[in-house]
């Protein structure tokens, strides 16, 4: 192996990007039209666009999850928070089609900006609750957020009256279905949030503080970092991301299903973060890696559909692929394999 | 007490990364005696125990068990040879029965089926416990008994493997008075049976209650072996604390500080389980020493002053204004800094670079928004690496890769960058070599001469007496008294030991 390759493969993003590229190439071989992009009716269409668009909620939640994990936390309530946010937004917008003198108009319960602010406010409150349980009550993060993971869906059902809430207000649909400059609007949402987070981490001391807290929370507190405040803030940010994802999902399907929206999202998000090279033990994290991780997961799902694997075995195939990817990324495994190769060479 | 040596270790030396943890240490354990191993933190007690129990191999010296040279390779090996150890933390299985814990790994089995012969296991375990004069139900789970009994079960397990030497590493630190008495009864029983017991503790009164002989270590060296009856308490303390190195260039007499206005005043400051309400005053440009034995409340008092633990009594005033800290960040905002005792867990952030570690406190004080540019960070880090002579390959090296002394300098640099008005140093020279010690002390004294107040916590009395303008002494979580700088070491010792 040349030194150049070693240096390249040492980069955090190398393995996640390689995995993504391999997946896309494999898709291109199985399905020659897979990588094609088309310009139709002023919009850009194609599987690649579709993957990024569908991955948007997961990318957002993964960004939030990355920062929580970086300070030795974990938030498994993101799926439930997504459902709460979706339900709150759907309930507040509500909407009904009113036929007046033969003209149908959409009427909302509350103005759309109020509904969006309400949903995000509730999401922030959820994050505050998680953060307080972890920091103030000193609970293990997985247990603290398990509470909201379980209770959150119940809460969402309570808001929705136990039913799937349908939204009848077309302007709201733009968020999850609209196009801007020929590209899906969600792409711009994701890009803006990623850029803002990136700037916050690198142009302020936040990135340094997060890494310090992740490596040694006690020493960070002694050095005067407001570790508890920052940790609570990160749980709120993570919940906010789940809240935004909830808006996108509910807008996309024009309804809010308290029971199924964001189901198992927490596991996908943790997986995306891990695939992206962030250590679950805290301290070392990669925002870009998590985005790539989320894209890998969505590509995987699309691949399974496009290759035509029967939906019943879908989960098994996904698990096997994830297993392979994780092995590939494990430094220990790579060393072992290298050991085998070297031994075989010697024998030959 | 007989004079037959069971275990004889001589000329023991052990170095870690070039630093001597032990050099030329000797220890003789005789049949039927309780022998105390005394010394301060970092004196080499735990290294010596590790050598005796086969956890680490000594670089020099020999160990002989009843005249036969031995070289235990692991704790299990040492146990086979007859050296058993009970550690401070009971490491048994609380969910298993007492009998299972005692006999684990060597259960009696039925002849043909090879299944465990429970009734015989229980008989054996009960017999072993009776050897310690303890009659308890061995079928009940270990967790149903108090810590003291659990401790004794651990001892029972240790001695049941035909041990001739029993090492008790701080067994009393989690026991109350009654439980300690119970443990001592067991120790006496074992002593009568001819066991040699090595007893490690920080509690002096316990040493005098039970031990026949005392071996004292200091800075990895052997100070002496004494009969307990011939060594008064004050003499023991001075043997432990000693005077082992001379600090150069420290002339504190010239600084008149008595009249300066107080920078920090603490009144009745206390915390349940930490320190009893204590008064303390620190003036500008003053070096205030805080002495006392380990566990006397020195560290706890500093933590209260720094806001690391919330005080539940008393007030702190800075420049006469009352303050209440909810977090260290608030104390730091008023110019207070603390170099904590535990460098690895509370000081350095191991995976971050030297640069990031050095700017951390200043950046925390500046807040999120006023982020120091990379050029500013480099300049600060470079300046302090040179000022304190920090030996590092580059300022981007992770601080965890540096030696202990250099890590301590990085933590010190982190605070000096913030230009504190009061710098609190908790055992700043612990666990680092003498050269680094001197450099750190002279740097601190230079800053004190420029007007910074220093609270200097140390267990080394000669250091306190030489360096400080005033010395406050803690004993049993209270302030025992104050002395002016230059007082005799005897006066300080008397306050520490409570024999004044």
Amino-to-carboxy terminus distance of chain A: 19 Å
Number of self-contained structural domains of chain B = 2
How helical, in percent, are the residues of chain A?
Answer: 55-70%
Any guess at the CATH architecture of the largest domain in chain B? Answer: 3-Layer(aba) Sandwich
Q: Globular, elongated, flat, extended or rod-shaped: what is the shape of chain B?
A: elongated
Q: Give the overall shape of chain A, derived from the CA principal axes.
A: globular
What is the count of DSSP helices of chain A, taking H or I runs of 4+ residues?
A: 15
CATH architecture of chain A: Orthogonal Bundle
Average pLDDT score of chain B:
83
Q: Given the helix and strand composition of chain B, which structural class is it? A: alpha/beta
Biggest beta sheet attributes of chain B: 6 strands, mixed
- Poorly predicted spans of chain B: 244-257
Secondary structure blueprint with pairings:
The complex is a heterodimer of chains A (348) and B (500).
Chain A: H1 3-9, H2 14-30, E1 37-40, E2 43-46, H3 47-70, H4 78-93, E3 96-100, E4 103-107, H5 112-135, H6 141-160, E5 165-166, H7 170-177, E6 179-180, E7 183-184, H8 185-203, H9 206-215, H10 217-222, H11 227-253, E8 255-256, H12 265-275, H13 287-307, H14 314-329, H15 331-347
Antiparallel strand pairs in A: 1-2, 3-4, 5-8, 6-7
Chain B: E1 5-16, E2 19-30, E3 33-38, H1 45-52, E4 60-65, E5 68-70, H2 75-81, E6 83-86, H3 98-103, H4 118-131, H5 147-160, E7 165-169, H6 177-192, E8 196-200, H7 204-210, E9 213-218, E10 221-227, H8 233-241, E11 262-271, E12 275-283, E13 287-291, H9 298-306, E14 313-318, E15 321-323, H10 328-333, E16 336-339, H11 343-347, H12 354-366, H13 374-387, H14 404-416, E17 422-426, H15 434-449, E18 453-457, H16 461-467, E19 470-475, E20 478-484, H17 489-497
Parallel strand pairs in B: 3-8, 3-9, 6-7, 7-8, 13-18, 13-19, 16-17, 17-18
Antiparallel strand pairs in B: 1-2, 1-4, 4-5, 9-10, 11-12, 11-14, 14-15, 19-20
